[in-house]
Amino acid sequence: MLAFGTVKLKGIDEKFDQLTGLTRSKVNHRYAGDIEAEARFECLTFASDTGAANFVGLEHITGRIGDRNGGFILQHIGSVKSGRTESMLNVLYGSGTGDLIGIKGHGRTTWTSGTDNPSQVLLEYSFE
Asked: In total, how many domains does the chain have?
C-alpha cells in the first residue's frame, strides 16, 4: 500500500554542542493526507561549512493510516543540500501499536527551503 501526504512543522527545540559540532533537535510534526497523525521527531544533525548537512533520527507517529489507528516509529536518514531536504524512511520492526501492529515499510520525505510549502511524504507499507 502507498500513503501520500504532507508534513508540517509545529514546533522545534534545538541545542548545539560546540564540542562535537552536532545539533540535537526535538521537533513536533503534523501529518495530513493518507497519514493523519501527530509526531515527535528527535534527530542529530551535522552541518558542514559549505552549508550541507546530514541527519539521523527517530520519529514516533500516532494517528491513522488508511482505516487503521495506532502508532509506529520511523527511522530517518537524511541530508540538506542546496536548500533541498531529503530523508529516507524505514518503519522500525516491532514498533507498531494498536491497529498498526505488524506494520513494515519504507519511504521518503522531501522539502525545499524558502517556501511555505509543507514537506511531501511517501510511505510504502504493508502488514505481517
From this structure: 1
pTM of the model: 0.92
Reading phi first (left if > 0) and then psi (alpha if -120 to 50, else beta), residue 117 is in beta
* 20 neighbors 44 (Cβ within 8 angstroms): no
Q: Which domain holds residue 18?
A: 2-127
C-alpha cell at 123: 510511505
Give the distance from CA 89 to its chain's centroid: 7
What spatial distance separates the first Cα and last Cα of the chain, rounded to whole Å? 13
CATH number of the domain residue 15 falls in = 2.40.350.10
Please write the tens of the pLDDT for every residue from 25-57: 999 999 999 999 999 999 999 998 888 999 999
